[in-house]
Amino acid sequence: MSEMLKVDHISKTFNPGTINEKIALRDITLHMEEGDFITVIGGNGAGKSTLLNAIAGVWPVDTGSIIIGDENVTGMADFQRAHLIGRVFQDPMMGTAPTMQIDENLALAARRGKKRTLKWHISKSEREKYHEQLKTLNLGLEDRLTQKVGLLSGGQRQALTLLMASIQKPKLLLLDEHTAALDPQTAKKVLGLTREIVERDHLTALMVTHNMRDAIATGNRLIMMYEGRILLDVAGEEKQKLTVDDLMHKFEEASGEEFADDQSLLSK
User: What is the pTM of this model?
Assistant: First the structure.
C-alpha cells in the first residue's frame, strides 16, 4: 500500500511574539496509508481543525512538510492543492452554492481543476450520472436536480456536500466536524453515508469529531490531540476494543488532567 499523506514535524504559531501568541501545532508527525480512515478527537483548542487547515493549505506552516500522494504541497496555496483534497465543513452552508441548482453544484464539483470553456452546459449524460450518484444517498434528491440548493435542509445539503467532495475521488477527504451542526438523527444518517462513500470509493479520510462514540465506531484508526500534540494513536484491534471510559482514562494518563471539555462529555 502506498502512503497517501505524510505530515512531518509541522508546527504552527499564530500571532508570534505578541500578547495573543498561540501555539496551535507542536511538531506533529502523521502518516496515512491509502484507504486509512482516521478519526481525530480532543478538547477545544487541541489543534484538530488547525491540523486540517494546515493540510488543506488555509495558511502556511512554520516548520515541517506536508506531502499528499506524491506531491509536496508544503509551499502551495490552498487553491493549488485543491485538486488533491475533498473537504466537508461543519457548516452545511459552506460547501455548496445556494443560488445554484443541485445539478449545477455537482457539475462545479465534477469539473473542479479541469480546463474551463466559455460554455456552461450540463450534458444529458452528465445529468444521468448525477441522477445515479444522488440515488445512492437515499434522500430523493435525484428527482430534484433542478431545485436550488438553498431550499434544502441542513442534512440534505451536508449529504450533497459529501457527494461533491468525493465526486472526483480525491487523494484525501477532510471532514471537519461535518455532523456537529445537525440534529442527532440526521447526523447519524450523514455519518452512515460518510462510511459508505469512503468504503465504496476506497478513499483516505481524516475526520475531526467531538463525539467519542462516533470516533470509536468510525474508521480504522483514532488519534487524540491535546495542546497541539498527538497524545494517542490507536488502530486495528486495539481501536475496536476501545470504550469511551478507556479514552477518558488514556487522556488523563497522557495529559495529567481530566477531559474537561463539556461538549466531549456530552457526546459520550
Answer: 0.90
